What we know:
Strand order of the largest sheet: 4-3-5
Structural class: mainly alpha
Number of helices: 7
Order of helices and strands: HHHHEEHHEEEH
Radius of gyration: 18 Å
Shape: globular
Strand content: 5-15%
Largest sheet: 3 strands, mixed
Number of strands: 5
Amino acid sequence: MTELPSWETLTGWAAAGQAQVERAAGGLDPARLAGPSRLPGWTRGHVLSHLARNADALVNLLTWARTGVEARMYASPTDRADGIEAGAGRALPEQLADLTAAGQRFAAAAAAVPPERRTFTVLSGQGRQIPASEVPWLRAREVWLHLADLDAGPGIDDIPAGIAWALAADVAGWMSSRTEAAAELVADGHDPIRLGRGEQAGGVIAGSPQRIAGWLTGRSAGNGLSGDLPDLPRWL
Length: 236
């Protein structure tokens, strides 16, 4: 993971994304909740259920960092999927209440972690060792991407540019050890991002931060980008 902004910036990004998701979900016709989201195999109810359970899972990591007592994101390999499925079919008022309460629990848990505990090492859902300072980024990433996935109005272009570019850097870093592709990703007003291994030559791919992030995360086919787009591995 490239260097992230401050804890305060990241928690602000997470809070802003949470508010946007709540607003978009609150404007849904209840009959659309069971309809398909932009994620294959998931309804809008699945997306909202996932966002609530993800908040609680990340509270576990924040609590682990604060107390030093191990608390994994999920209790078992099936816990994540089971929790999402269990909540996906609920009525909209119940979904909204759960999403809001979970977001509040996350915000409170983040506020409770003192600065000296933010370097404490915890384990991500994929078993990767990360400092607790990365946990607010994991939440910000989830709420903004799934805001677009919800298909309730906002799309990938509605992600703020700074968040989209941080997302692009994150995903490009993950992909660089998993692909033979090589390119320089360029967006006006932002430092270039290297996609690929070492000094391998590659072309330039240019566009808005949102469109580059959308392409890297599989949310778009590369519309609005210039340059030769290589095939990419599926991200997470």
